[in-house]
Amino acid sequence: MDVQLFIPCFIDQLYPGVAFNMVKVLEKTGCNVLYNTNQTCCGQPAFNAGFQEEAKAVCKKFLKDFNGNDYIVAPSASCVGFVKNYYKKLFENSSHIREVDQVSSRIYEFSDFLINVLQIENIGAKFNGVVTYHDSCAALREIGLKSEPRKLLSHVEGLTLVEMPENETCCGFGGTFAVKFNSISTAMADQKLTNAESTEAEFLISTDMSCLMHISGIAAKKGLPIKSLHLADVLASGY
Questions:
Q1: Closest of 186, 200, 130, 138 to residue 158, by C-alpha
Q2: Do residues 19 and 97 both lie within one domain?
Q3: Residues 81, 185: one domain?
Q4: Looking at residue 109, what DSSP letter applies?
Q5: Which of 10, 38, 129, 189 is positioned for an S-S bond with 218, CB 3.0–4.6 A?
Q6: 49 to 33, 43, 52, 183, 237: CA distances (angstroms)
Q7: What are the beta bridge partners of residue 227?
Q8: Same domain, 85 and 180
Q9: Which one, of 39, 40, 35, 38, lies nearest residue 3 by Cα?
Q10: Structural domain for 198, as ranges
Q11: How many domains does the chain have?
Q12: Global confidence as pTM
């Protein structure tokens, strides 16, 4: 099947390897991966900052860029959650609502797509190490993902998953929240790292690089050895 990629801003600019690894996995499953080079942002940063009209302009472009019938797959539960849940509020009672409904039904976070659309649990990946998993707020609360990434990790040869305490607690990032409320945000990341360290895991895995960027930044500042990896990085390993 044809699959359209949506690559979020921060992955495009800071973690392009995650996008390439997602492509590697999707192609291994037999998908024909397409990328519209006109794509930009989903509009979430402007919306979260309170600039609804500016966000609408970006969102209209997203609807245009992803017009069609193909599935849309993104390595970010945060961006997918925004499109699914907030586009409908932005364009309520507008001429764009039909486009919104259509795009919302076709966009999937990476692990959600693998498990619930392709119905594939075993990618054939190999990754030696003890890992723990962080449930991002967007994945857990915006689009209801919890078992999907764990099912995929359970089939990775050589990988041992150890659940951390309070794994459903927020890491403290929240986009501009980390800037506006730095001390609270840092304290939340410290607690997340304490919980992750208690598992003695070598790696912290998640579906959202925004969370991992925040957590790994605090870990580096504290000199902690735990490494952060996106789920796509793990699933692309060993073949």
A1: 130
A2: yes
A3: no
A4: E
A5: 189
A6: 33, 10, 8, 19, 37
A7: 203
A8: no
A9: 35
A10: 126-235
A11: 2
A12: 0.93
